[in-house]
Amino acid sequence: MGDQDELKLQLDAFMGEYEEANNSHDVGRVVQFIAEDAVYWFSDGSFRGLPSVKSAIERTFATILNEVYEVRDLEWPVVTTDLAVCRYQFAWRGEVAGQPRSGRGRGTNVIVLRDGRWQILHEHLSP
């Protein structure tokens, strides 16, 4: 197996762990995957820096109860030893105001290797 294949396996595992952390609804677990200077673009706004991103995630967890978030069709168009870009489809389901709700969309992440660990520098989710 080549270096690119090994990096993609490593990054697939990273995204799987990120998905699991989101499904734990424990923001403390989720922020471990996010860079301090991250920028997140969600359908409800843009968030710059870890404190702002953390607040946005906390609001989502408070709004969508029992959420199950899934990443599908993960692709890696750019992979180097210290930077990677992925694109994917996502889907979610849960309860909003006591009613079942669901949605889906597309995602793009920029992931960087800092201090020996991968971190999300940018996430863009859109319907």
Please supply descriptive tags for the structure shown above:
127 residues, alpha+beta, 31% helix
- Termini separation comes to 36 Å
- Tell me, what's the shape? globular
Helix content: 25-40%
| Beta-strand content bin | over 45%
Number of strands: 6
The top level CATH class name: Alpha Beta
- List the strand order in the largest sheet: 2-1-6-5-4-3
H/I helix tally: 3
CATH fold-level name: Nuclear Transport Factor 2, Chain: A
Q: Report mean pLDDT, rounded to a whole number.
A: 97
Residue ranges: pLDDT <50 for 5 or more in a row? none
Report the major sheet. 6 strands, mixed
Give the tally of structural domains: 1
- What is the ordering of alpha helices and beta strands? HHEEHEEEE
* Category from helices, strands and their pairing: alpha+beta
Radius of gyration: 14 Å
CATH architecture: Roll
Q: Explain this structure to me?
A:
- With 127 residues, the protein is of the alpha+beta class.
- The chain has one domain (3-126): Nuclear Transport Factor 2, Chain: A (Roll).
- 31% of the residues lie in helices and 54% in strands.
- The chain has three helices and six strands.
- It has helices at residues 3-24, 27-30, 50-63; strands at 34-42, 45-48, 65-79, 83-96, 99-114, 117-126.
- Strands 2-1-6-5-4-3 form a six-stranded mixed sheet, with helices on one face.
- The longest helix has 22 residues, at 3-24.
- It is globular and about 50 Å long.
- The N and C termini lie far apart (36 Å).
